[in-house]
Amino acid sequence: MPHPLRPLSTPPTPSMSRRTALLAAGGGLLSLHAPGLLHAKPQARPAEPTVWPQALLVPGGVARLPLGPAATRPVVHTLGAKGEPLPVLVLGDAAGWTAVVGIPLAAAPGPAHATLQSTKGGAARELPYTVAPKKYKEQHLTVSPRTVDLSPEDQARYERERDHQALVMATFTEQPAGQAIDSLRMRVPVPGRRSSSFGLRRVFNGQARNPHSGMDIAAPTGTPILSPLPARVIDTGEYFFNGGTVWLDHGQGLLSMVCHLSAIDVKVGDVLAAGQRLGAVGATGRVTGPHLHWGVMLNRTMVDPALFVPAA
């Protein structure tokens, strides 16, 4: 079942220095003291910094919705699979806020929206966006038959674990007032080749199963796994499909999980810095060999981890 910023708008162009502004304003001074500047080639502007996560309006992607300025953090909700309201991560400060919405893999192409709640008793406001179609590739894998055709005992175990992890995935921790993190750019938890991408339609031993809800990274057993962002550990365990697993809370419904671990070096309640070790790569659970499964969740929706990291 593998299943805490500044506004995310582009920053303004840096203002000119006082000396540059004076030169530009006084044409006589410019021609007298720096005639060569009149014919100098314009300098290339520095590349704009990339915002994290990147927006990708497809199933399994992320929508970034500008909310404008407000004295306090706005409250935004989206709807879950059963129509229930789910809180959305909102980042920024009084100068401008942005809602960061996870789009479900099962989302149908077409119009969609989140809802901005009124803070003064007025009407709520819809925040529309459009989901574009995306067809994910199919992947065929051969694994232990026991992990495809479950015995009654294994089925009962899976259902218990599914219900427990649903509670874990419902975690939503408000960030302390005034706390801001410069970026949601994540570090990849382990070095290695991305052996399986997010969204693949999985076929195990000839039987179709749920789409792949994370990124697989090939790495030898024992390779250290590092926290992608500052986090609090909210769950650890040995699960039927996921094997050794650690769930991390990064704040406001942004969670991540790492699976198939051979060793877990943290416990529930531990607070981790970005880059701090939390365990080691393994081949536990339903696997074809040693690797790390890395999942990222927004508003209880698994989204593509690649949107949080630089292109490989």
TrEMBL record:
Keywords: Hydrolase. The keyword Hydrolase applies. Signal peptide: none annotated. One of its GO terms (molecular function) is metalloendopeptidase activity. It comes from Acidovorax soli. This is Murein DD-endopeptidase MepM/ murein hydrolase activator NlpD. Residues 211-305 form the M23ase beta-sheet core domain. Residues 58-134 form the Peptidase family M23 N-terminal domain.
